[in-house]
Amino acid sequence: MEVPKSVEKPKAASETSPAADSDEDTDVILEESPCGRWQKRREKVRQRDVPGVDIAYLAMDSELGVEVVWNEVHFSDRKKFLAEEEGVRTVFDKLIKLDHPNLIKVHSYWMDSESEKPRVIFITEYMSSGTISQFLKRTSQSSKALSIKSWKKWCIPILWALDYLHSFDPPIVHCNLTCNTLFIQQNGLIKMVCVTPDAMQLYIRQSRENPRNLHYIAPEYHQGKPVAPPIDIYAFGVCALEMATLGFRSLGADIPVVTKDVLDKVTETLEHPLQMDLICRCVQSDPAARPTAHALLFHRALFEVPSLRLLCCHTLVRDSSCADSDVRISSSKGDKERILAEVVHSNGVPSPCRQGDVAAVDLDKMIEDVRNGIYPLTIFRRRLSRQISVVRGPGTASPVDATELTDQTNGGSSTGDLESSENQYPPETRRVVEMSADVKPSDSKSAKMLTLMFRFQDNLHRELVGEFAESETAHGLVEELVRLGFVSDNDREMVADTIADSMAHYGLADTVAEKEKLKSDELEADSLVP
User: Fold this and answer.
1) What is the pLDDT, as a whole number, of residue 159?
2) Where is this chain compositionally biased, Polar residues type (predicted)?
3) Suppose 502 and one of 160, 437, 485, 521 were both cysteines; which one would form an S-S bond, judging by CB atoms 3.0 to 4.6 Å apart?
4) In this structure, is the dihedral angle defined by the CA atoms of residues 482, 483, 485 and 490, taken in order, positive or negative?
5) Chain-centre distance of CA 385, in angstroms?
6) How far apart are CA 207 and CA 421, in angstroms?
7) Structural domains of the chain, ranges and CATH numbers in brackets
8) Percentage of residues in the chain with pLDDT exceeding 70?
9) Left (φ > 0), alpha (ψ -120 to 50) or beta: where does 378 sit?
């Protein structure tokens, strides 16, 4: 069993001098992960509300140079820890595979059974921004109410993340959805704290014991019924009500415990009927009567038909063959007289709609926001040929064994160097989460330029650029990528299909099947010649 390498033992509270809290001392490395990538620092992270996390420290990702959170779960009973160790591993193997723009990413985890108290350490994204609860407290002090537009902008990504979790088989239930576990990034993106490890709940302290959080818990949980997705829907309904009323501001003074009667009273103060209907559906006592997260995305209070502009931005971000189009679209913004549409009235007089008549929108910023997940297309399923998750949901799961997870990092390389060699290259074990392929003309008339972009399950990126002959096939190129350790053999077909799509878009016969078909057609044509 791997044990973290101890770099420096933390001092006891009585031994720590005031100078230890200085900026210099907070950068001291206290501990490293077994792989050496994650470096624990002295500074504690206090703005966490994850059940079971006994303590959290700021840490550094030594490969990407970004700050992360080092979370520790302590076990007081060593025998129970050893008995349940395999189950805990299974839970965290699932957590690190979760990949959604609105979920705080769990990067890695490991066990430490050699310490005085056994520990589970896991690394998550660091959220420097505040929570929705903190925002509501600050805003409630002013007379300004939260607009229905802002309320929608918060509810949709939360439901989108819940729909993602509930789509697995069996469904993944968050179990800890509150306004304190929802973060707002500076760009407006909502991030949900990582899922509660259900298998560990017998051995860790529960935030549900806090009476201030009792109103988020569905009635059936107290009745001992199995944990199921309707529990998350109930908690979402309470969060939606809290957001709509700025933390129950209408009740005046801070209330120590929010009861069901208080929730009903606050709900009656809502001015928007559709908003009230959505919340009432979520907080029904009967779990079977509550709608699913997917159904709520289509509720009249939230559903909006996406604009053509937004659809275009998503196409630009998703499809590498359109990567140059955003420049052309952006350049058209200055042509105020360009006619976009023309309406001919009954008297025959046309009324043109010009570019200048349309509200100006910074397309560059909008495209960047779409890349960051701020404007999701929740009514469409993602195109799996362009964006493949390691775990995608029922019927489309692509499980990855824990042995496939590694902290190996390879830098950017060039496919121009993909030549045969007698040397053995270490195989790539990380799975590709997202990729793109782009074919462009090359300086050589007999070759084309291929650009490949990969994002792996540990959120690292790899770019490969090189020439290939027109006679080469997508499967032949992937064979080289796998042999040289650039992609995993498990991703062979997916990578080949993506390259083939890009080659076909450029007008090349890209697959072996197409090559064989061309040859057979030529042979058949030759046989017909007398």
Assistant:
1) 95
2) 405-426
3) 437
4) positive
5) 18
6) 57
7) 1-10+23-126 (3.30.200.20), 130-199+207-306 (1.10.510.10), 308-371 (no CATH), 402-519 (3.10.20.90)
8) 71
9) alpha
